[in-house]
Amino acid sequence: MQLVVARIGRAHGIKGEVTVEVRTDEPEVRLAPGAVLATDPASAGPLTIETGRVHSGRLLLRFEGVADRTAAEALRNTLLIADVDPDELPEGEDEYYDHQLIDLDVVLADGTEVGRITEISHLPTQDLFIVERPDGTEVMIPFVEEIVTEIDLEEQKAVIDPPPGLIDDRAEIASARDEQA
Fold this sequence. Notes:
The protein has helices spanning 27-30, 69-73, 98-101, 176-180, and strands spanning 2-12, 17-22, 36-40, 47-55, 58-63, 79-83, 105-108, 113-122, 127-132, 138-142, 148-152, 157-160. The chain is mostly beta strands. The strands form two sheets. It has a six-stranded antiparallel β-barrel with strand order 1-2-5-4-3-6.
């Protein structure tokens, strides 16, 4: 299976280095020197990582055969894709790859069906499950421990404990006007 692990940004310096937007929780594994990555567009690769380093909080990579700024700039916006064994699990105990979570049934603790995960949205502060409900509407569920209480890959389900108003209209709206009355 192929997973997007990074997107190439702008060139850095004159010796062929590029900045990368990391899209994996394991950059030390997926973006290590010697790694051979497919690309999108395919015509840009495959690319073999020659060196990698962190500079001012950004990961910089240099690829074999990319020796100058012009060649590096030509790779801008290229996606880097790693081949991953579909049965491989992340190193952390409560970590999951997107492909493991897509199509899981989402249920409440009492077994009430909420829907099915169709997409994972990776935001700067947290990830969101995009869940398609049985009626075809979508609801977004923050993938945080307080709300997603259990992921059971064998049973193919995610158990949630949503606060009022997240998946229904049970929210109570407090207003300062109510207090004045």
